[in-house]
Design goal:
By secondary structure, the chain is α+β, with helices and mostly antiparallel strands. It has three domains: about 60 residues, no CATH class; about 80 residues, no CATH class; about 110 residues, Orthogonal Bundle (Endonuclease III, domain 1), CATH 1.10.340.30. It is about 45% helix and about 10% strand. It contains 14 helices and six strands. It has a four-stranded antiparallel sheet. Strands 5-6 form a two-stranded antiparallel ribbon. Helix 4 runs antiparallel to helix 8, helix 10 packs across helix 11 and helix 12 packs across helix 13. The chain starts with 11 loop residues before the first strand and ends in a 19-residue tail after the last helix.
Length: about 280
């Protein structure tokens, strides 16, 4: 589930077959509930000031805008098998930039557990309760003013260093221009994202995958991804970003789609040496 940031994400829950999503739309907070109806039908209900905006965006969120034209993975057994076992897989498009950018920044240079803890704490301490009958504990991300108001000592308590605080504040300062990226050509949108200090190719790609549903955005610079992709596509135990891009080249235009299929396949890269032991910044 590419939108959910850990099992304790206060903005996303799966409860009794209903997928709950809380977000801050251009019209205000919204809670969205999605449930499977009859075959081929998804039932959507929303609450809050941004309810109608959220409902209007359900088709894009479910990947209706995702164009698979020209994508052929039949020559690779793993990809072909995974695609056949997940026939409805689509890339979501949230149309919300800060909603994707802020958690991506929190994931820079730290483990997933550390990033998810920071995201959870940010929403619990500085977000607001989800509108409507959302499951208990669901929270809306702070708006731009709220992000700018988070004091340095709270970021420290969340384990977020100054290198990650700066791009968050920069993005919040120009939040309007960031949200306009949704209406730009993909190359221009990526370039605008990377103007922000502290936002490089990895963070821009992670944002584009979710906010724009970008089918070709590859997370170059990820600590684990290159090894996973190279192993899944070639069987080689190790790789680097250059090798990853090389093996993904046959699917140019759909490279993120290939990565998503690899993640869904259940393949795990071989492990070498001891696990990384993160340093708890909160203790410094």
């Amino acid at each position: 589930m590419p939108l959910r940031r850990g099992s304790g994400d206060p903005a996303h829950r799966l409860v009794d077959g209903v997928f709950w999503r809380v977000c801050r739309t251009p019209l205000g907070p919204a809670t969205l509930a999605l449930r499977q109806g009859p075959p081929g039908v998804v039932e959507a209900t929303a609450w809050g000031a941004g309810a109608q905006w959220a409902l209007d965006g359900v088709p894009a969120l479910l990947g209706l805008d995702d164009d698979e034209g020209g994508f052929d993975c039949s020559a690779h057994p793993l990809l072909h098998r995974t695609r056949r076992s997940h026939p409805g897989i689509r890339l979501p498009r949230t149309r919300l930039v800060l909603d994707a950018l802020i958690p991506a920044v929190l994931e820079q240079r730290v483990t997933g557990g550390e990033a998810h803890r920071a995201w959870r704490g940010l929403l619990l301490w500085h977000g607001e309760p989800a509108p409507g009958p959302a499951p208990e504990g669901m929270r809306v991300m702070p708006d731009a003013a709220g992000l700018l108001a988070v004091p340095t000592w709270d970021w420290h308590r969340l384990g977020v260093d100054l290198q990650r605080q700066r791009p968050i504040r920069a993005a919040a300062t120009v939040a309007g221009r960031m949200e306009q990226c949704v209406d730009l050509p993909l190359a221009d949108a990526l370039a605008r994202l990377r103007v922000l200090p502290g936002v490089g190719i990895w963070t821009a790609a992670e944002t584009a995958q979710r906010a724009f549903g970008h089918p070709d955005a590859v997370s170059v610079g990820d600590y684990h991804l290159h090894d996973l992709v190279v192993y899944a596509l070639t069987g080689d135990a190790r790789g680097d970003d250059a090798r990853m891009l090389e093996v993904l080249a046959p699917w140019a235009g759909h490279r993120q789609r290939v990565v998503r299929l690899i993640e869904l396949s259940g393949v795990r890269k071989p492990r070498f040496g001891p696990r990384y032991s993160p340093q708890d910044l909160r203790a410094l």
